[in-house]
Automatic annotation (TrEMBL):
Keywords: Membrane, Transmembrane, Transmembrane helix. This is Uncharacterized protein. The keyword Signal does not apply. The keyword DNA repair does not apply. It comes from Hymenobacter oligotrophus. Signal peptide: none annotated. InterPro entries: DUF7010. It holds the Pfam family DUF7010.
Length: 196
């Protein structure tokens, strides 16, 4: 059985070594900015939805590339919580049937639905990295996507991914500040992350 202190140390180690998932947030920021540009171009909602769906395949390779830029660690073999991060990310794939339905039946609402799913999937990362930033981002992105989707004209749907990208910039800043505070804590108490 893991003691409460050891469990907290495992979370802290994940947060510091993975830098709160900043590589994924940066990749998502760039991806959603590109999607905003795509939706601003001429074309039907169905075309934009299809290209958006295809562009989502760039997320994992982009995060992997940015991992090198940010110096994040993807695998901590001794930390039993580490694999959960990737599983939490893959969990949103089970929402994709809903996106397929939106694409086939209501493509004009596809980007709103995708934004809601993106926002909602942040929620468990608040527990994983022990930071409230993900709770706030989950609510802001999901509710903001819904509100914009309900009130924007069809020609203004590009504002949804632009809003998401901007929200992710703010999330990234908050996560960076949180990471720096935790890194200072571990530097002051190196034993805090040295879990056997």
């Amino acid at each position: 059985m893991i003691r409460q202190e050891d469990f907290a140390a495992l979370h802290l180690e994940l947060s510091v070594k993975a830098k709160n998932g900043l590589d994924f947030i940066a990749a998502a920021t760039l991806l959603w900015a590109g999607i905003a540009v795509l939706w601003a171009l001429p074309g039907s909602a169905a075309q934009h939805s299809l290209y958006t769906f295809m562009a989502s395949g760039l997320m994992l390779p982009s995060a992997r590339l940015l991992s090198g830029v940010f110096g994040t660690t993807w695998t901590l073999k001794h930390n039993p919580l580490q694999p959960l991060g990737l599983w939490l990310n893959f969990a949103q794939l089970f929402y994709f049937p809903f996106l397929v339905f939106m694409y086939l039946r209501h493509p004009e609402y596809f980007i709103m639905a995708y934004g809601i799913i993106t926002g909602a999937h942040f929620f468990p990362y608040a527990w994983f990295y022990r930071t409230p930033a993900f709770v706030v981002a989950a609510g802001v992105v999901a509710a903001g996507s819904l509100a914009l989707g309900m009130y924007l004209a069809p020609t203004q749907q590009y504002l949804i991914p632009a809003f998401i990208s901007g929200s992710l910039v703010l999330l990234g800043v908050w996560l960076w500040v949180d990471y720096r505070a935790k890194a200072r804590l571990t530097a002051a108490q190196p034993a805090a992350v040295a879990v056997a």
